[in-house]
Amino acid sequence: MSADPDVPLASEALLRPVRPGNPFEDTVERLLQTIRLGVLQPGESLPPERQLASRLGVSRDTVREAIKSLADAGYLVSRRGRYGGTFLADELPRHTETPRVTRDEIDDALRLREILEVGAARMAASRTLTAADREVLWSRMTDVRGAPPDDYRRLDSRLHLAIAEAAGSPSLVPLVAENRMRLNGLLDQIPLLPRNIAHSDEQHEAIVVAILAADGDGAAAAMRAHVAGSAALLHGFLD
Q1: CATH code reported for the domain at 103-238
Q2: Ranges under pLDDT 50 in the chain
Q3: Which of 18, 30, 99, 196 is the most exposed place for a label (fewest CB within 10 A)?
Q4: How far apart are CA 121 and CA 215, in angstroms?
């Protein structure tokens, strides 16, 4: 892609095509990087949706949803009219209620999660599950889908613990539980984005369906994509 003379070089580097699998979450991360690294100044406008979609390699709907989510979270302001557009808020949200975490701390929790939970999904799919086991997995998945925002983290954690239990290794469950506590502490520092929740619901179903179909590779791939989506948002908001 050739350089755009109207786009700063830093934006050239940051607003690059996202990876397949989590277009919404990666778009949010890319936009937050331009904000948090100071590429955009308070009150400065974002490039038009069409240009952002082209540069990021996503649909305009995805860009629009990402912008709306960041506006709801207080990072952006949308204005209509002749001089309208999307602008960086004059004052950005501050997460002062919890200690600042480093990228290394975030990466450690996320890498451990991938090791534990991708392996758990693959192992669960390799086992012959009882009817009760299968019912628990499906029930936990549907519970998350209907969860109100205040109860989402708890029910999400309960589903992931059920997957660990289905792997058949009692020693695995407390390891997943301990790391989920770390992750939830990080996730509680960022806003719940409705588009991400809807995407997570789809990924949860893909994971559970693959486990119930005894598709180990499919379960592992679906869990890996799910973990990557959370990683993108955590890095975007907290780095």
Answers
A1: 1.20.120.530
A2: 1-10, 96
A3: 99
A4: 10
Rounded to the nearest angstrom, the gap between the alpha carbon of residue 12 and the centroid of all alpha carbons in its chain is: 23
Give me the amino acid identity at 17. P
* Burial profile 151-166: b = 16 or more Cβ within 10 angstroms, e = fewer: eebebbbbbbbbbbbb
CB burial string 47-68: b at 16+ within 10 A, e below: bebeebbbbbbbeeebbbbbbb
**C-alpha to C-alpha distance for 69 and 91, rounded to whole angstroms:** 17
Domain boundaries, the chain: 9-88, 103-238
Cα–Cα distance between 166 and 173 in angstroms, integer? 10
Q: Read off the pLDDT of residues 82-118 as tens digits, 9 standing for 90 and up.
A: 777 889 898 878 654 556 788 899 999 999 999 999 9
